[in-house]
Automatic annotation (TrEMBL), chain A:
PANTHER family per record: BLL7424 PROTEIN (PTHR43737), DUF1501 DOMAIN-CONTAINING PROTEIN (PTHR43737:SF1)
Keyword line: Signal
Signal peptide annotation: 1-28
Alphabetized InterPro entries for the sequence: DUF1501, TAT_signal
Any Pfam family the entry gives: DUF1501
Native source species: Amphritea atlantica
The protein's name in its UniProt record: Uncharacterized conserved protein, DUF1501 family
Keyword Signal: yes
UniProtKB/TrEMBL annotation, chain B:
Top-level taxon of origin: Bacteria
Species in which this protein is naturally found: Amphritea atlantica
Protein name: Uncharacterized conserved protein, DUF1800 family
A Pfam family recorded for this sequence: DUF1800
Length: 396, 457
């Protein structure tokens, strides 16, 4: 009984949020059925290691021993446009770039420049310059507009342990994480569910948890594994390709805070890059024909210092890199209002100066790819913020 | 049936109601908690000290290097596997000792505080395997040993502990103007300094700048420990050592204050000032209130703790006494969702489960699957302390699976079930009824552990 009331209540809550925007989805009538994946790399991924500006005259001297070689050298960068290159570890990403499915951004950052991981992540995830006290993430707010008529819990999914702040809000979104625990027996589960009916906070979540499990296991057998990006990305694909599945998935992974001995084309950071590259190739494959309607946004809270620190690593910086991938993406280029690496052009003399607000990327994907109304974005998703990067998705 | 305050003393402040607490806690709940604040002896889990553990790791790594350098063969592959397993077994043994100590302690409030500060000054072996053997020792030496002292003492112990110095890279930080810095290309690493201000003391809005981060980083250059390549007989491997030749010379300015001291004293003076800063008082008060009251604690409760911190100059037992006396902490309107580690501990405590092989296996699988492996937080901020983070649909599903599996295989017997039912507070009637109607003791135990009631403290 209690659950029925809750369901009505939250559908009502969604309706209130979308009030005034009769059709927040602008091309709800056509045949597109777009999918969006957001992947957050936590810890501050070194953008200059991933997408080196090898053509910048100050690149080699500024990066010192972390500088990668020119495209014509052994283990040199893969050339992208004569100025930017790609770390050669990214073999699959390079292929996507060549196939115009990868759009790379340089000198991008959330609107925050003080180098705290946690604050920067909060800004990135709430989409607000002052995230303190904000109860919801920007993707959660976007889901309110996108899911029109559907429950956010069914439209947006968080994959992996923990729910990132970007999709936190009044109503929990769908969630799934891998595990290796035994399935409970039916009789006990029923008795237990009777108890959860009485808990208005946990009850609906528990039901959603078991539903998600059922949904994913019905596609190609039980998906088991550790809580790693590989398994989680597999799960994202299984959910997103379903006709009745969610359309937005979010996942995250850590291990990017390379203060010491980060290496260039081998070593700690290169290993992370390789893992990411493999996961992205797997995702593309698992998405199958739906890949053409997919955009994957990969962001990090900040870039790192241009110069090497005292321990062959890099410290927290500001401007970083971001990736937008997928069959729907107008890729094959690097988009950057490049500020330059000469000392006088660096932020506070040490970091790549951010010239693109990450919200412009998010807003662009929401509007151009997902079809979310601009007014809704400017008022609800990123209140008071009006920019967006144009030309992100392929025409037609 | 226990009263609400008895139940709360055991669950909210303690590590979960169980037979071990029952008699002591039920007579005088508040008095029982106060008694735990200053004790004669609290050795903690018996594990090798940090210096020994770090040396053991070096030895392990040497052996691995030797094997890797030897000729490739089937034998070598086997030896490598054995070596790998050996280290994992040692790590696991330490973590089990820590878990068992908490599961069996008769001072569970104290232990909760140890784990609270251990998480506040979090170290993680994720990507830093070198500290995995020494992390429980770190908790004993830097946290537990200073629980009866001041926050400043604890901070100093933390920042001078080899495990923290390694975890946040300070052992390699070299002052650019120091003799070593001038000789080589090594330089400053600001990681530890930044996290001290952001996560350990002032908090992110505590009013410091990038210059302050650099100043503190310089003041603690030279704070390191006897490392792998140590040849100096005066330096002991795995123990704190101040490397004077790495220390940035000269005065520094931090938060507008001048530090003219030389050497080790400079960093020490700065850390003591940071520990006593009003921003630190506010930050710690907020974290404590969040941990013991609710995700959104009442502002008055934070203010009372803050005042207590400032008045006592960060004397921890005084602060903790204030905490026990906070009305809000006893208000039935507030509740906290158990973290996976808290959940597992309370599950073992409620049935006083014997720490046998089967339970160990369940504990290990629980911590892995519920994503709170010991000393494995994803960032130096430690584990989140809020309901939302831990109670996602998928996390709840996993808890239920774990709870039912544990109940089914714990072999608790009827007596323990009856005891546990009796320990539930008066408002848990539905669960009591469900347990009494269960088809077997195993199902009753599972229902309790997997129930919504049992997820909160």
């Amino acid at each position: 009984m209690a659950s029925a009331i809750n369901r009505r209540q939250f559908i009502k809550a969604c309706a209130v949020l979308t009030l005034g925007f009769t059709t927040p989805i602008s091309f709800a009538q056509d045949h597109r059925d777009p999918r969006m994946v957001v992947l957050i790399l936590r810890g501050g991924m070194d953008g200059l290691a991933a997408v080196p500006a090898y053509g910048d005259p100050a690149y080699r001297s500024g990066r010192g021993k972390l500088a990668l070689g020119t495209p014509d050298t052994v283990e040199g960068v893969i050339d992208l446009d004569g100025f930017f290159g790609l770390n050669p570890v990214f073999e699959n990403l390079a292929q996507m770039y060549a196939g115009r499915e990868a759009l790379l951004f340089q000198a991008i950052a959330p609107p925050y420049a003080k180098r705290s991981h946690f604050y920067a992540q909060d800004v990135l995830e709430t989409g607000l310059t002052n995230p303190a006290g904000s109860a919801s993430g920007w993707l959660y707010r976007a889901l309110q507009g996108l899911s029109e008529g559907r429950n956010p819990e069914k439209y947006g999914y968080s994959l992996g342990a923990g729910i990132p702040r970007i999709v936190q809000g009044a109503v929990p979104v769908g969630a799934w994480a891998p595990d290796r625990l035994p399935d409970p027996d039916e009789d006990t589960l029923q008795r237990l569910m009777a108890l959860y009916e009485q808990d208005s906070y946990l009850g609906p979540k528990v039901r959603a948890g078991f539903n998600a499990d059922e949904m994913i296991n019905s596609m190609g057998g039980k998906l088991r594994g550790g809580n790693n990006l590989k398994t989680v990305a597999k799960a994202a694909a299984r959910f997103l390709i379903r006709d009745d599945g969610p359309r937005v998935a979010v996942m995250d992974c850590g291990g990017w805070d390379t203060h010491a001995w980060q290496g260039t084309t081998k070593g700690r950071l290169a290993n992370r890059f390789r893992e990411l590259d493999t996961v992205l190739a797997g995702l593309k494959q698992d998405m199958g024909s739906v890949w053409d309607q997919t955009a994957v946004v990969i962001v990090t809270e900040f870039g790192r210092t241009v110069a090497v620190n005292g321990t062959s690593g890099t410290d927290h910086g500001v401007g970083g890199a971001a990736f937008l991938l997928g069959g729907a993406v107008n890729g094959g280029r690097v988009q950057s209002d490049w500020p330059g690496l000469a000392k006088q052009n660096l932020y506070e003399g040490r970091d790549l100066k951010p010239t693109l607000d990450m919200r412009a990327l998010f807003a662009g994907v929401l509007h151009q790819h997902m079809g979310l109304d601009r007014g809704f974005i400017e008022e609800q998703v990123f209140p008071g913020y009006r920019d967006q990067v144009s030309g992100l998705v392929r025409a037609g | 049936m226990t009263t609400f305050s008895q139940y709360r003393a055991m669950n909210r402040f303690g590590l979960g109601a169980g037979p071990l607490d029952l008699n002591a806690a039920t007579a005088d709940p508040k008095g029982w908690l106060q008694q735990q604040l200053e004790v004669e002896q609290d050795p903690g889990p018996q594990v090798p000290d940090a210096a020994t553990s770090l040396s053991a790791f070096y030895e392990w790594r040497n052996e691995r290097k030797r094997l890797m350098g030897s000729e490739e063969s089937e034998n070598r592959a086997q030896e490598l596997t054995l070596l790998q397993r050996g280290l994992a077994a040692q790590e696991q043994s330490n973590f089990f000792k820590r878990f068992e100590y908490a599961a069996h302690t008769r001072t569970p409030f104290r232990e909760r505080l140890v784990q609270f500060y251990s998480n506040h000054f979090s170290v993680s072996r994720k990507g830093k395997r070198m500290i995995s053997l020494a992390s429980v020792a770190y908790e004993n030496e830097a946290i537990r040993a200073h629980l009866d002292s001041s926050f400043a003492d604890m901070l100093l112990a933390v920042v001078s502990h080899p495990v923290m110095l390694f975890y946040l890279d300070n052992n390699n930080s070299v002052g650019p103007g120091s003799p070593a810095g001038k000789r080589s290309k090594r330089g400053l690493n600001e990681n530890l300094a930044r996290e001290i201000m952001e996560l350990h003391t002032l908090s992110v809005n505590g009013g410091y700048t990038q210059q302050d981060v650099q100043a503190l980083a310089k003041m603690i250059t030279g704070w390191g420990f006897g490392g792998y390549n140590n040849r100096n007989p005066a330096i002991k491997q795995g123990e704190f050592f101040f490397y004077k030749q790495n220390h940035e010379p000269g005065p520094q300015v931090l938060l507008g204050r001048h530090y003219d001291f030389q050497g080790l004293e400079q960093g020490r003076a700065a850390l003591i000032d940071l520990a006593l800063d009003p921003s630190t008082a506010r930050f710690l008060a907020t974290k404590l209130a969040t941990h013991f009251i609710s995700d959104t604690p009442p502002p008055e409760a934070i203010s009372i703790l803050e005042r207590s911190f400032l008045d006592s100059r960060g004397h921890l037992p005084t602060l903790h006494r204030t905490l026990v006396n906070l009305e809000a902490a006893w208000d039935p309107a507030h509740k906290k969702f158990k973290t996976p580690n808290e959940y597992l501990l309370s599950a073992v405590r409620v049935f006083d489960l014997p720490f046998n092989g089967r339970i160990r296996k369940l504990i290990r699988s629980g911590l892995v699957n519920l994503n709170q492996r010991p000393f494995f937080a994803g960032s130096p901020a430690g584990w989140p302390d809020d309901t939302r983070y831990w109670s996602s649909a998928s996390a709840l599903k996993k808890r239920i699976e774990w709870g039912l599996a544990t109940g089914a295989s714990a072999n608790t017997g009827l007596h323990k079930i009856e005891q546990a039912v009796a320990m539930l507070p008066t408002d848990a009637g539905d669960l009591q009824l469900a347990m009494k109607r269960a088809a077997s003791p195993a199902q009753a135990a599972g229902l309790m552990l997997a129930s919504p009631e049992f997820q909160w403290r």
